[in-house]
């Protein structure tokens, strides 16, 4: 109740609550119409009103959920509005699929007969009111974002071609019909047409109710598929297709920063309808200033990615190459030194002298160890414990 009170205190929340109440009344009235007429086209209109009601509920959810991190959720319930919109569009899609099955069964069963009723037109107006409330009652909310950011459905594209032809004759209608008509407005228009045609021709054409409901259900499916796809891609943590070129340009600019060797392991995704997150590893030279590179890379990508995690990785190939060069220079210098010195051969250990003087026999034993000579000899075979041999 506290969250509902906080939503009611917000101007957008108050409008969403009022629109939800009106949509709920329209839904109840449509359920009554279906119970009286047993009409499939009114059943489709009732499901559309249910869809509109839950779309407005998703707006209330977006105003009441907390974005604070919790023990189990790093970002709180920031993705709850996305899940609400996705669930709502999937509900409408499934209802359209089931209605297609029912319509086919009614078309094959010729024993069903219905009669015109005033509730057809009343139900059409109720469904249209509910759809228009979902589309225009609250601005800049999750469902409105999905309607504007998702790709056009095939139904909208065909209607856009007709709109261009109409606006060529009546240019004043371009404000309403171009560049593309809102998907909910288009569904409201088609629902009114289907209910009106059914009411007019039901006495003469018994299968008109099932046929109109079948066409309307296909239109609902075609309309909901792009909306479900857009919300589903956000739940799968992907980036929107319309910002891929901008991301590539920002990454190319960040790669030209002084000290940056490459950007690797870059991953960007959309957490909710408004926030882009990303992680990237930046390989830099060993002599590069990490703080300066961090600020520069963040500045290049901040225009697209609102929450960015940058990992600075020092380049190790430079240090190994310089170490190998220094080791090679040391070995060269040692070899040159060993070749330049003329090293006499000494027997390190004992020296034995043998001589005969005037028939005398004398022996002299001299234990000697010339450390300087030994040191010179061992130069060519010295091993540095800090040099790694490859």
Automatic annotation (TrEMBL):
InterPro entries linked to this entry: Cation_efflux_TM, Cation_efflux_TMD_sf, CDF_SLC30A
The Cation efflux protein transmembrane domain covers which part of the protein?
18-236
Q: Where in the cell is it found?
A: Golgi apparatus, trans-Golgi network membrane
Print the keywords alphabetically: Golgi apparatus, Ion transport, Membrane, Transmembrane, Transmembrane helix, Transport, Zinc
- The record's region (Disordered) falls at 346-368
The answer, when asked if Transport is one of the entry's keywords, is yes
Gene3D superfamilies in the cross-refs:
Cation efflux protein transmembrane domain
Compositionally skewed regions (Basic and acidic residues) per UniProt: 351-368
- Tell me the GO BP annotations in alphabetical order: monoatomic ion transport
GO cellular component assignments? Golgi apparatus
Role played: Has probably no intrinsic transporter activity but together with SLC30A5 forms a functional zinc ion:proton antiporter heterodimer, mediating zinc entry into the lumen of organelles along the secretory pathway. As part of that zinc ion:proton antiporter, contributes to zinc ion homeostasis within the early secretory pathway and regulates the activation and folding of enzymes like alkaline phosphatases and enzymes involved in phosphatidylinositol glycan anchor biosynthesis.
This chain's protein is named: Cation efflux protein transmembrane domain-containing protein
